[in-house]
Amino acid sequence: MTTYQTGELAKSCNVSVRTVQYYDKEGLLQSNQQGNDQRRIFDEISKERLEIIIILKSLNFGLKDIKAILNDDNGLKVVRSLVTQQERLLEQKRDEIHETLKQIHKFKHYVGEDVEAPLPKIIETHQLMNDSATETRLLKCIGKRFIPLVLLQYSSLLVSILKQTWKPILYTFPLLFGGATYLANIIYKDLKYLCPHCQQIFKPSFTQWASAKHTPRTRQLTCTHCHTQSHCIPVVEGTH
């Protein structure tokens, strides 16, 4: 039967000598002492057990579970059962990590890199960013008024195509322009903005608001409190 010294076994399984020594000390491997220098000698069974340990460690099993598996006659069946448990735990952790990352990304969105607000402001900001009704109300605020304009626009376009004339579009243009202006005023009146720099909520002027660069979730405005220009977050009236 082939035998291995500690270093040879470690090299054959691509692990460190210290790893072999540790598992031997924990009783997971079978070894004998030989020679005057009391060298540890391992057999093929130890090599096989070490390879199994490496596989189980890669599946994130702890030492206690590994010992139980190695000492169980139905070891592979035990591995299958524990792997299923491990899968559930990892999936739960994955969901928790995903949710935490969402919160982190959202926090960075609400709090600017150069924020100068005092620490207690985090309480208000956290309440605001976790108010599930805020984004819903914002979408409803815009959507319920925007949909009729979209329907009117596409209806006039469809009629124009069917009748092969631009008249329906020309006739509805004043309505679309007036509706868009009305919608802009309504939305402006319903919204305030959170400054990510000073964490204050403010109301910009209509001119500044209408001409500001914006994304679906922010608008580049100058805060009326700290006078810093940044991408500010919309807040629906009544949610703060």
TrEMBL record:
It holds the Pfam family MerR_1. It comes from the Bacteria. InterPro entries: DNA-bd_dom_put_sf, MerR-type_HTH_dom, MerR_fam. Residues 3-72 form the HTH merR-type domain. Keywords: DNA-binding. This is MerR family transcriptional regulator. The lineage of its organism: Bacteria, Bacillati, Bacillota, Bacilli, Bacillales.
